[in-house]
């Protein structure tokens, strides 16, 4: 249960949120044509005769687009409909050359599923929660109007026309901006694990229509507004905060909320009216006469299921079972590239808990400092495994490992070669360590007297002085044992 409330003059209000996420399908071509879909191409260079709606051109469904949508449905444990159908959604717009969009209103490819978001007290999510997903349908994208290319005219770029989209429609189950943010992050993570969408919100390959209404707790749902094409998690959360407050102020001043479509302005963090909200009958939906229904056989569904990778929740549970903390498991599984890199590290034989601590602190810290992500990591999982192996078998200490790692980042050399070349091997030679301890105690008689007088916290001081004198190359465990003896 979310305790997020809008405090109005007449009391507290609850916000009700549903999201329609449009995710561009990762595929070799558009939904109904063979045209390319690469981002950033010159305008109108990726347009087939089908996309341009030339007379007599007939659409042919792209099998890979259907396959990716089915795999996505399976990843959220949704009902896969073996029989589905395409409908025409009719409206006029300059970037829609057909005069209609091919979508799926009445019989979508994927039915009901769900998505699990985790409790996060810092973010304001008090408990784990399951968000219902109503459906995933497949549809074609429209083109794009370019208003900044000419002083008096708008240009039309049809590169996006016909690109395959999955529209993933949630139930109105979210009750706070934090829950909505967690839902989008989790959904994006699943899409990227599955490989059905790259999740790149800045490039527009994943964007959300945000449905918001408010009500007094326990009352029926209020009238909702829909804010279109919001392209970051932060903006989704800002849209909800602004819309909820706007609607509460409107209702408390005696006004009514219009069911309408709105646009979010990221510069001001506000929304504005775009148009009044159409109902389904305004679009005159009817079955597309150029396309046969989609019928999926058991062999196709079995192939889709077998092709699914280990998904974030399962991976996280596996990591926790191996002794990795819940926090580290969450960090490591949030992005698919990090999880793959970490799995490759575990395959080298690295101890899971130590490896997770090292990756989340040392490795991620270094990458952050260098402005790189895990895909550009200068150190391979095999090299990292070698470094951690040298710490585990006592060849080098943890502090020396940090020095070796810095040299690895700069040179790309292996850990063992660096340790050999720089003479960094850890010593467990008890005679050498005992001699240094005797020297440290002789140089610090005041501290020695205080320690023996009961100030046991000074033990750490003696450890530090011994390690410093041995340039960090002494085995800390042996130092501790021998110091305890020497201090009696």
UniProtKB/TrEMBL annotation:
Gene Ontology MF term list: asparaginyl-tRNA synthase (glutamine-hydrolyzing) activity; ATP binding; glutaminyl-tRNA synthase (glutamine-hydrolyzing) activity; transferase activity
Enzyme Commission number(s): 6.3.5.-
Location of the Asn/Gln amidotransferase domain: 340-487
Pfam family, one: GatB_N
Gene3D superfamilies: 1.10.10.410, GatB domain, N-terminal subdomain (1.10.150.380)
PROSITE patterns associated with the record: GATB
Keywords: ATP-binding, Ligase, Nucleotide-binding, Protein biosynthesis, Transferase
SMART domains, sorted: GatB_Yqey (SM00845)
Reaction(s) the record says it catalyses: L-aspartyl-tRNA(Asn) + L-glutamine + ATP + H2O = L-asparaginyl-tRNA(Asn) + L-glutamate + ADP + phosphate + 2 H(+); L-glutamyl-tRNA(Gln) + L-glutamine + ATP + H2O = L-glutaminyl-tRNA(Gln) + L-glutamate + ADP + phosphate + H(+)
GO annotation (BP), single: translation
Function: Allows the formation of correctly charged Asn-tRNA(Asn) or Gln-tRNA(Gln) through the transamidation of misacylated Asp-tRNA(Asn) or Glu-tRNA(Gln) in organisms which lack either or both of asparaginyl-tRNA or glutaminyl-tRNA synthetases. The reaction takes place in the presence of glutamine and ATP through an activated phospho-Asp-tRNA(Asn) or phospho-Glu-tRNA(Gln).
Family classification: Belongs to the GatB/GatE family. GatB subfamily.
PANTHER family (alphabetical): GLUTAMYL-TRNA GLN AMIDOTRANSFERASE SUBUNIT B MITOCHONDRIAL AND PROKARYOTIC PET112-RELATED (PTHR11659), GLUTAMYL-TRNA(GLN) AMIDOTRANSFERASE SUBUNIT B, MITOCHONDRIAL (PTHR11659:SF0)
Known partners and oligomeric status: Heterotrimer of A, B and C subunits.
UniProt protein name: Aspartyl/glutamyl-tRNA(Asn/Gln) amidotransferase subunit B
């Amino acid at each position: 249960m979310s305790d997020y409330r809008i405090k109005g003059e007449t009391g507290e209000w609850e916000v009700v949120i549903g999201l329609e996420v449009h995710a561009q399908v990762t595929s070799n071509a558009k939904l109904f044509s063979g045209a390319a879909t690469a981002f950033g191409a010159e305008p109108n260079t990726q347009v087939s005769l089908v996309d341009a709606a030339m007379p007599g051109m007939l659409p042919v469904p792209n099998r890979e687009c259907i396959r990716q949508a089915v795999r996505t449905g399976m990843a959220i444990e949704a009902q896969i409909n073996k029989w589905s159908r395409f409908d025409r959604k009719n409206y006029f717009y300059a970037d829609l050359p057909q005069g209609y969009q091919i979508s799926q209103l009445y019989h979508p490819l994927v039915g009901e599923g769900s998505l699990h978001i985790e409790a996060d007290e810092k973010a304001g999510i008090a408990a784990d929660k399951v968000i219902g997903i109503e459906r995933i349908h497949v549809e074609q994208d429209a083109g794009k109007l370019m208003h900044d290319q000419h002083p008096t005219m708008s240009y039309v770029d049809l590169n996006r026309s016909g690109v395959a989209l999955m529209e993933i429609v949630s139930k109105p189950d979210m009750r706070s901006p934090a829950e909505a943010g967690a839902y989008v992050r989790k959904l994006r993570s699943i899409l990227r694990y599955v490989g059905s969408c790259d999740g790149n919100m800045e490039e527009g390959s994943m964007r959300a229509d945000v449905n918001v209404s408010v009500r007094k707790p326990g009352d029926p749902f209020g009238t909702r507004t829909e804010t279109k094409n919001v392209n970051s998690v932060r903006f989704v959360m800002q849209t909800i905060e602004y819309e909820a407050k706007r609607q509460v102020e409107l209702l408390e001043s005696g006004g009514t909320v219009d069911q309408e479509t709105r646009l979010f302005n990221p510069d001001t963090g506000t929304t504005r009216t775009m148009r009044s909200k159409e109902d389904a009958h305004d679009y005159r939906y009817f079955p597309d006469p150029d396309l046969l229904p989609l019928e999926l056989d058991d062999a196709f569904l079995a192939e889709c299921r077998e092709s699914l990778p280990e998904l974030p929740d399962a991976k996280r549970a596996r990591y926790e079972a191996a002794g990795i903390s819940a926090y580290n498991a969450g960090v490591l599984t949030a992005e698919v590239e990090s999880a793959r890199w970490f799995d490759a590290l575990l395959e080298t034989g690295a101890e899971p808990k130590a490896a997770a601590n090292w990756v989340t602190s040392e490795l991620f810290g270094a990458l952050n400092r260098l402005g790189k992500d895990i895909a550009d990591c200068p150190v391979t999982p095999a090299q990292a495994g070698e470094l951690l192996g040298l710490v585990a078998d006592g060849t080098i200490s943890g502090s020396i490992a940090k020095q070796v790692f810095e040299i690895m980042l700069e040179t790309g050399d292996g850990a063992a070669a660096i340790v050999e070349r720089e003479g960094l091997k850890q010593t467990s030679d008890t005679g050498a360590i005992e001699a240094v301890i005797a020297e440290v105690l002789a140089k610090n008689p005041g501290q020695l007297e205080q320690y023996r007088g009961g100030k046991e916290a000074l033990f750490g001081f003696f450890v530090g002085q011994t390690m410093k004198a041995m340039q960090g190359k002494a085995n800390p465990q042996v130092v501790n044992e021998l110091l305890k003896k020497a201090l009696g």
